[in-house]
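task queued by scheduler; priority normal; single chain, no ligands, no partner chains; default sampling; output format set to structure tokens
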Amino acid sequence: MASEVLSSPSQPDPWRHYPRGGLDEFFDARGNIRPLYRVFLPLLQGRLNQWDRRKQIADQIFHHRGVTFALGSSAERIERPIPFDIVPRILSHAHWQHLERGLAQRLVALNLLVGDIYGDQRILQAGVIPRDFVYSSPLLQPRMMGVEVPQNRWVSVAGIDIVRSGEDEYVVLEDNVRSPSGVSYVLENRLVSSSIWPQVMRSVSMHSIVEYPQRLLDTLLGLSPGTWVVLTPGVYNSACFEHSLLASQMGIDLVEGRDLVVYRNRIHVKTTPGLTPIDGIYRRVDEDFLDPLVFRADSLIGVPGLGNVLMHGALA
């Protein structure tokens, strides 16, 4: 390891167990800190117990704010703090622009693919994708064939899992487009990082992410102006914290299936004064469970009749 991060004579080498080999985003091949991470150099030369203390503070903040991830069934529910690396991953502006272009291009392709599968199926007719590959999928929803969606946008929110595979190369692990989750933890991680590294976070120029909820709302309203709600499976869902956070920051209602009802071919929210019609649902429920009359008959968290409303274009 380079001399810039070696321990002092009075302290043991903190890097003696550091794994070598493979791509390292913090150190380069010669063991020197990469330029983006040099703001941490003075802290690396400090006492290691200071790092432990910062990790404890981070866990306390997460616990106080209720930022947890639920594991197990409702009977054996365990609330755990989200995994958090006290050293944030840093991307340069150039790397982010490269990623942004690629991800935007990928979303265009995903929308065209899904739209074609549920539409003209030209990609199947051309043999680009085997027909059996599509029709054997348990996730295919045949009743949605030929259904028109707002602005022909089948994928409005996506969680694309990526990993860095080289100095300037990233690869996609999977496309989460059904009901992607995790963005609330990004928002909370930035907040906690600013709390435990105030000097570091103030010393660098960062893109703000606080506007994400507003951008999400703008995206939804772009599909259909009017009243939107966030549909959650309920408090026992592992991502319930995120559902609540996003609904609150977007200024829209958080609802469960039991809060909704179909009346005159429109979805309504049950309120104290009466039924309030809504124009769009940002669903955080997999489509299998949306409507027991159309999808899974054993769903207890769906809305009977919702599927029919969707198919008639009366809901975004």
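post-processing summary
- The mean pLDDT is 89.
- The chain has three domains: 1-44, 90-177, 211-316.
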